[in-house]
Amino acid sequence: MSAFCKSIFVILVGCFVFTVSSPIQAKEIEAPGFELPTLAGERLALEQFENQNPVLLVFWATWCPGCIKEVPNINEMVEKYQSRGLVTIGVNVGEPSGRVGQFKNKYDPQYPLALDQGNKVSKMYRIQGVPTMLVINKSGNIVYASYGINEQLQDAVEVALKG
What we know:
By secondary structure, the chain is of the alpha+beta class. The protein is built from five helices and ten strands; from the N terminus they run αββββββαβαβαββα.
């Protein structure tokens, strides 16, 4: 993708715009709180990480080729940043747990998979496509958004880990 295309590529989250080319300059907005069941049968609430850990929130689906392609890249980020405090959460958009379980067995994501079966959370975040990656800082604000992993996403994670 050319630099020009990167500079105009935007993702709408709520009523705010984040540019892919400048995550640090993006306007921060409060991430909507949520609680979802995980594939492992636990409850996961975004608020449990506020003031403690930055979060990489990954919205995805089993039928999405880009989501499948990104699993190894996300696993690398988990390996690289988890020990420094980054929490990574995969939010499956609207699929049954059986299908998500098959995906986990086949592709081996190394992060918790939350089940947004009613699409409530993806609607709150106004997710338009998958995979959508959001970096949420320790204060609970969205500081970066992109489709897929790129260098700017990793830069935003680094900044969130320092803050």
